User: Which sequence fits this backbone?
């Protein structure tokens, strides 16, 4: 999906109030679904990763993502600092498993050996999901009557932020090799992931 810049200009006060009244945040169960889905796909990468970190939930990243989701913009947050970010929009309901599955599905367009993506396709959501050094995630969601940059109305916007960020130029998302053979000192291997 193409991203567009947010045009400057104030939304009518009525719209702002309506959006705020309809806003909601993820439940603990929903956060667990997002986290578990990320770790599931990370543990199943092919070829296997020799040092894939297990992700944990981070409240600071969640707060950043939630505040940005409330803005209802289909473009990346320019003020997220050194944090990765994935966006997903869906109507009429937000299916969290499907969102992470959709990001991971870009795997079919990505070649780990050459670190290339099929021309005309997107791979950045997938590479962030399986970026081996990323070990913290926090997400936020919001119901938006109108998302700036998307024609369809009444959609749910999901924003996930990651630390450390993935998609660093010149780097592969992970180094292939037997699972957990290069886990950092002080971590243990569980389900092909290096965790605390």
Assistant:
């Amino acid at each position: 999906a193409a991203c567009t810049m947010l045009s400057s200009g104030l939304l009518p006060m009525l719209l702002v109030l309506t959006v705020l009244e309809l806003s909601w945040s993820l439940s603990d169960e929903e956060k667990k679904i997002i986290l578990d889905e990320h770790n599931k796909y990370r543990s199943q990468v092919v070829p296997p990763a020799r040092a894939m970190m297990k992700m944990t939930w981070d409240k600071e990243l969640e707060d950043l993502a939630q505040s940005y989701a409330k803005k209802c913009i289909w473009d990346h947050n320019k003020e997220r600092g050194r944090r990765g970010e994935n966006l997903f929009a869906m109507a009429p309901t937000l299916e969290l498993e499907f969102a992470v599955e959709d990001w991971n599905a870009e795997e079919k367009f990505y070649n780990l050996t050459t670190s290339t993506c099929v021309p005309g396709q997107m791979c950045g959501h997938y590479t962030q999901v399986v970026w081996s050094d990323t070990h913290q995630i926090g997400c936020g969601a919001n119901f938006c009557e109108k998302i700036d940059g998307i024609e369809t109305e009444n959609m749910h916007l999901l924003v996930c932020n990651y630390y450390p960020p993935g998609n660093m130029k010149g780097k592969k998302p992970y180094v292939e090799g037997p699972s957990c053979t290069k886990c950092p000192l002080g971590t243990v291997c569980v389900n092909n992931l290096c965790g605390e």
Notes: Residues 42 and 119 are 24 Å apart (CA to CA). The chain is about 25% helix and 20% strand. The longest helix spans residues 28-43.
